[in-house]
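Render this sequence as a predicted structure.
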Amino acid sequence: SGVAARTDADGRYELAGLPLRPEDGRGLYYPLIVAGPSESGLSAATTEIAVGTGEEADLVLRAPGAITGRVLAADGQPLIGVTAVAFPGNDDDIFLNQAAGFTGTARVYAETATDDQGYFRLQGLVAGLQYYVACREDGRLVAIATAFVQAGESVDVGNIARNVH
């Protein structure tokens, strides 16, 4: 359950009622994901804000990014119809819980199936985040890779051989 706000004519916003999260050694911080209108061609920006301090966060909306790659069996043959999923490589449970409900024009989660040559493309991803790419066949994890998504760019993780048994 996130908190939402719209910007005013000057681009300013205020988020009120953010729940405090427990002290984790860094102070009280909260992930912030901002999305632009779909017709703008800009998608999202992310940052963390200190809660309860009145801290201001200026965000610049950027174009989304994509992750591409190919999933191969141990013998080098393409794995067809494997589900490839991208999700943020952030072990912060609060971030992941908030990200799950994000409904902006860019996504922090994407899913697709590999084609008849084992290729996949996960697009519309929020730039500036590290992602895990998990590949599942018949519900079992068969391969995993990581990629850092840049604004407006496609990152190719190359051939991902079955690396999980």
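Summary. The first strand starts at residue 29 and ends at 35. Strands lie at 29-35, 44-50, 65-72, 83-88, 110-113, 119-125, 130-137, 140-148, 154-161.
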